[in-house]
Specification:
272 residues; alpha/beta; TIM Barrel; 8-stranded parallel β-barrel; 8 strands; 40% helix; 14% strand; binds 3-methyl-2-oxobutanoic acid
């Protein structure tokens, strides 16, 4: 197998490590991964969490949204990522309509955990009762609030959420509710930095942001965006780490370094 210069052997990360990082203030680095090659490279560069995101529908499969992604797709890609992993914590997305009942959600989560060897599953929205049910079955859950790509046809466009004071108040309440339901992690997507700060400081569980400012407990990016593989228009919150890096491995090292140092995202990469 290829040996990467400076590559790290990571001791396998667990939820306890992520909780400890919140306690000590060490920022959590997270990238999406969809296959074994990137999984090996990212985990060896020291990325703490690999998210097998349903964004694969857009960046790998070429769809215009995440809606066509199936459980079969998610299981296949989770297995690839698990195979290449070197100790990072793996979260797998539950795709559109895979959680339409509590039982279906739990059964699909079990597939990603048993056959995909994911350590946690992520579902979009303040699905408090579904989360409670899954947690009762022993399933570790990451909640996802803010911009919900699976709701694109209800939203009409991908845009910043939680801007009005009423919307901000509702998001804060939803975050408190998903934590109370037993979620052990929260991803916040595309919300004002001040609101993400308030949510991160209010919750005991680690909060990982994408387009949610510098004050979250960690940062996640879609790997294809931060590697400049996406030729379309870039969202304000993404950064191309390939500029000035010379190699994918160095770009990922730079991402981890900037997340840990608290220098990414900058004000320009955040919503106010
Ligand atoms: O699917 C995905 O990549 C995600 C991130 C945008 C958080 O859910």
């Amino acid at each position: 197998m290829t040996q990467y210069a400076g590559s790290l052997e990571q001791a396998p990360k667990t939820i306890l490590d992520l909780q400890a990082m919140k306690q000590t203030g060490e920022k959590i680095s997270c990238l999406t991964a969809y296959d074994a090659a990137f999984s090996t490279l990212f985990s060896r560069a020291g990325v703490d969490v690999l998210l097998v995101g349903d964004s694969l529908g857009m960046v790998v499969q070429g769809h215009s949204s995440t809606l066509p992604v199936t459980m079969q797709d998610m299981l296949y890609h989770t297995q690839l990522v698990s195979r290449g992993n070197n100790g990072a914590f793996i979260i797998a997305d539950l795709p559109f309509m895979s959680t339409s009942s509590h039982l279906e959600a739990a059964k699909n989560a079990a597939l990603l955990i048993q056959q995909g060897t994911a350590q946690m599953v992520k579902l979009e929205g303040a699905r408090v009762e579904t989360i409670q049910f899954m947690v009762q079955q022993g399933i570790p859950v990451c909640a996802h609030l803010g911009l919900l790509p699976q709701s694109i046809n209800q939203l009409g466009k991908y845009s910043v959420q939680g801007k009005s004071s009423a919307a901000a108040k509702q998001l804060l309440q939803e975050a408190i509710a998903v934590e109370a339901a037993g979620a052990q992690l929260l991803i916040l997507e595309c919300i004002p930095a001040t609101l993400a700060k308030e949510i991160s400081q209010t919750l005991k569980i680690p909060v990982i942001g994408i387009g949610a400012g510098i004050d979250c407990d960690g940062q996640v990016l879609v790997a294809y965006d931060m590697l400049g593989l996406n030729l379309g228009q870039q969202a304000k919150f993404t950064k191309n780490f390939m500029h000035e890096s010379g190699s994918i491995f160095n770009a990922v090292l730079a991402f981890v370094e900037e997340v840990k140092a608290g220098t990414f995202p900058s004000l320009e990469e955040s919503y106010q």
